[in-house]
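Need residues for this backbone.
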């Protein structure tokens, strides 16, 4: 006589194995994914090349002891009532949405005080409707972490101004320093299956017929009269290209969820 309990157990094991195989195949298919990060449109976004590319209101310097990205950052003294840092950008696409962000740190070395600072990230002009992100907080000797301001805006013109505005009170003393790093303005990132990305062909292309050149001339944007000419960077930097990185796989996400 056949033991039906053994057969039932074997059937369940076979069914579970089949389901696991199908699920693994589906997850593996989702693993083949990439995120394309749009190029940063800012010049010298992390102040690795000194102060060039930006305009400033008050004196400032470059720090090699504090940074959130790379090895340098912009350092601003707390002895001034406010600080404003700007950069002009051209060649934006009207109607497209752009991401803006910047890292900042408020460092207070006086053990006896707490300074209140407000940091604003804005586009075009310092109007309330143009502020994409703002942070107001108290800072003392124990608040030493980098923070990030980030937001989005929709371009209404082909040119814009990337602006940072910071005010601190009540002390306004040299034992307070504000650092900025890793600024960015770019189109939102996009993800796609890696298998859908076209593979370059090894077949040589036909030689184009001679004719008027369609290559752009000076690829660097022309200064806009909407903003002070002193804001325009004087150094030429190479154009950035999109960066691709793998998406976090579904298998890894499920594994992390299981561990948590």
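Answer:
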């Amino acid at each position: 006589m056949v033991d039906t309990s053994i057969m039932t157990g074997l059937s369940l094991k076979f069914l579970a194995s089949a389901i696991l195989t199908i699920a693994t195949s589906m997850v593996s298919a989702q693993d083949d994914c990439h995120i394309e990060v749009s190029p940063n449109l800012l010049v010298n976004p992390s102040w690795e090349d000194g102060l060039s590319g930006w305009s400033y209101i008050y004196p400032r310097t470059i720090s090699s002891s504090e940074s959130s990205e790379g090895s340098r950052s912009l350092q601003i003294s707390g002895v001034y009532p406010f600080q404003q840092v700007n950069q002009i950008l051209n060649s934006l696409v009207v109607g497209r949405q752009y991401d803006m962000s910047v890292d900042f740190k408020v460092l207070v070395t006086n053990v006896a005080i707490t300074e209140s600072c407000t940091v604003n990230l804005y586009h075009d002009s310092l109007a309330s409707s143009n502020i994409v992100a703002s942070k107001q907080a108290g800072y003392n000797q124990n608040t030493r972490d980098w923070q990030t301001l980030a937001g989005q805006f929709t371009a209404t013109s082909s040119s814009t101004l990337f602006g940072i505005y910071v005010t601190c009170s009540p002390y306004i003393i040299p034992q307070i320093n504000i650092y900025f790093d890793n600024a960015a303005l770019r189109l939102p990132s996009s993800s796609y299956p890696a298998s859908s990305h076209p593979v370059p062909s090894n077949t040589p292309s036909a030689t184009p017929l001679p004719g008027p050149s369609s290559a752009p001339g000076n690829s660097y944007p022309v200064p806009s009269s909407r903003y002070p000419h002193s804001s325009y960077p004087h150094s030429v930097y190479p154009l950035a290209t999109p960066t691709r990185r793998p998406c976090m796989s579904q298998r890894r996400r499920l594994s992390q969820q299981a561990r948590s």
